[in-house]
Design goal:
mainly beta; six-stranded antiparallel sheet
Length: 181
């Protein structure tokens, strides 16, 4: 059984950067997944704007050509057969941090398997003034905060502090060796 992954959150199509078309249909799911991710990834430098959800997908290798920086993946469901990224098996109750360019392997399996990958979409910083705050409302941790005048800033410090940061800022290297959930 091969299914196609679907995106929720930041996306890009022929009209430019936007919220993925199905994001509004799955508000509660998006908020719940983002709540779990925020709880597990407590380091404020960990950010994501897009969720890629694979339901019962079988694929030798899946990449995220639109992503940048660090990505996080986890698996849910009762199944036999592994899903792997960066040569690390995804297991229940474990959030695996990996580079966005690591391929996700989804071999044949038995049962029901959902794989969720959270990543930063490379165009998320160019979303419209109405879509950027919506991502934050949905629980995405994009690095953008909306102030009282509805202008966007980029969060890099303690609560209440806002300053610009370079797009090539990366999280600490030891993040790749930590299980987060």
């Amino acid at each position: 059984m091969t299914a196609r992954p679907f995106l929720l959150g930041a996306d890009f199509d022929t009209t430019g950067p936007r919220l993925a078309k199905d994001t509004g249909k799955y508000v509660e799911l998006v908020q719940e997944i983002n709540c779990i991710l925020s709880h597990a990834a407590q380091d404020p430098c960990l950010k994501w704007s897009t969720l890629v959800i694979e339901v019962n997908t079988v694929a030798p290798a899946r990449s995220l050509p639109f992503a940048t920086g660090l990505a996080f993946s986890f698996v849910h469901g009762k199944h036999t057969g592994p899903a792997t990224t960066a040569s690390q098996a995804l297991s229940r109750n474990t959030l695996v941090a990996h580079s966005y360019d690591c391929e996700l392997s989804l071999p044949p399996f038995g049962g029901f398997r959902v794989v969720v990958t959270a990543c930063m979409h490379c165009t998320a910083h160019t979303l419209s003034p109405s879509d950027s705050p919506r991502l934050i409302e949905l629980g995405f941790r994009t690095g953008a905060v909306v102030d009282s005048e509805e202008k966007l800033g980029l969060y890099t410090g303690a609560e209440g502090e806002s300053e610009k940061f370079a797009s090539d800022d990366v999280p600490p290297p030891d993040i790749f060796s930590r299980a987060l959930i």
